[in-house]
C-alpha cells in the first residue's frame, strides 16, 4: 500500500515562515520515505501553505500526486487578474493539481468542511497538521481527534512553536 498524507490546520498560522520551513522538511522526508500522495483542503492558511510547499517539492519530485478537496464549485472557477499593462489574465487557483469534491451536496454548508476532512483522513495513513489541541472546539480540533481515533500517525507542527 502506498503512503498517503492529509493536511489539516487552523484558518490562521502563526510564525508562518517557521512553519513553512518545518513543513517543507517534513514533506520532503515523507517523499523520501515513499509517500507519493498528498491531500489538503482549501479553507485556511495552513491548507494554502501545504499546497504551496507540495507544489514546490513537485518541481524536484515530479511523480508526487497533489489532491485538493473542494467543498464548493466556485472554489475552482478562474479568477480574472487585471493588469493595466499586460491586460486581463485568467488565473485558475488549482491548475496542475487534482481536485475532488466528495458527495456532500446535501449537507449543511457548515458541515461540508468537517465531512470532507473526515473523508480525507479516511483515505490516509498520516496526518500532518497545525492544531492547537488545547482548544475545546473547532473544525481542526475535531479532525485531529478523528484522526487520532482512527489510529493515523500524526505530526502536529503546532507543537513545534
Could you please describe the fold and organization of this structure?
The chain is globular, with a radius of gyration of 16 Å. Helix 1 (16-32) packs across helix 2 (45-58) and helix 3 packs parallel to helix 4 (139-150). With 161 residues, it is α/β, with parallel strands linked by helices. It has a single domain (4-135, 153-160), classed as Rossmann fold, CATH 3.40.50.450. The strands form 2 sheets. It has a 6-stranded parallel beta sheet, sandwiched between helices. Strands 4-5 form a two-stranded antiparallel sheet. It has 4 helices and 8 strands; from the N terminus they run E-H-E-H-E-E-E-E-H-E-H-E. The protein starts with a strand and ends in a 5-residue tail after the last strand.
Spatial ordering of strands, largest sheet: 6-3-2-1-7-8
Helix content: 25-40%
Largest sheet: 6 strands, parallel
Report the end-to-end length measured between terminal Cα atoms: 33 Å
Percent strand:
15-25%
Please give a quick description of this structure:
The protein has one domain: 3-Layer(aba) Sandwich (Rossmann fold), CATH 3.40.50.450.
Amino acid at each position: 500500500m502506498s503512503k498517503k498524507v492529509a493536511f489539516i490546520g487552523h484558518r490562521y498560522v502563526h510564525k508562518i515562515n517557521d512553519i513553512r520551513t518545518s513543513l517543507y522538511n517534513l514533506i520532503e522526508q515523507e517523499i523520501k520515505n515513499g509517500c507519493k500522495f498528498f491531500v489538503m483542503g482549501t479553507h485556511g492558511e495552513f491548507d494554502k501553505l501545504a499546497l504551496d510547499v507540495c507544489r514546490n517539492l513537485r518541481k524536484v519530485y515530479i511523480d508526487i500526486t497533489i489532491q485538493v478537496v473542494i467543498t464548493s464549485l466556485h472554489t475552482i472557477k478562474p479568477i480574472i487578474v487585471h493588469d493595466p499593462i499586460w491586460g486581463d489574465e485568467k488565473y485558475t487557483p488549482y491548475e496542475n493539481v487534482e481536485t475532488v469534491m466528495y458527495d456532500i451536496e446535501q449537507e449543511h454548508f457548515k458541515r461540508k468542511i468537517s465531512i470532507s476532512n473526515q473523508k480525507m483522513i479516511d483515505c490516509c495513513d498520516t496526518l500532518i497538521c497545525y492544531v492547537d489541541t488545547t482548544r475545546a472546539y473547532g473544525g481542526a480540533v475535531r479532525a485531529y481527534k478523528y484522526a487520532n481515533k482512527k489510529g493515523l500517525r500524526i505530526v502536529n507542527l503546532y507543537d513545534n512553536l
